[in-house]
Amino acid sequence: MPVEKTRPNAGMGTETGQYNMWFSTIELQALGVDVEKDLIALHSKELIGSNYEALGHKLEDGKEVPYTKVGPTTLGIQLYAVAHNKLPAWRNLPDEDFGEFPDIKTPNFFALSLDDFLKKGKLK
To answer: For residue 67, what are the CA distances in angstroms to 22, 80, 81, 105?
Structure first.
């Protein structure tokens, strides 16, 4: 019997806080994100959780790969849905296609775990 995929309850911060996204810090900076300042601002407005990080992962060869990890909050998910004019669908974020903002550049390189982040970057 296949294991069912567990979906977080977007209305429960204790559940959404368990889900994170890893981004390339270098790509975020190239898009104009001031990682240090912007993460503090997003967290202070309760749009991302308190477990955000901007660190580096040391590879076997001694090089370090900078990454930024953020996790959603219920308010952050709701605001994202409002920005896409889809507030009634905010609880469906994992399954709902909220679309893109054509005039806003977004990161191309991201993953749902550090391990996947390293694999996508062919670093593992």
So the answer is: 6, 22, 26, 18
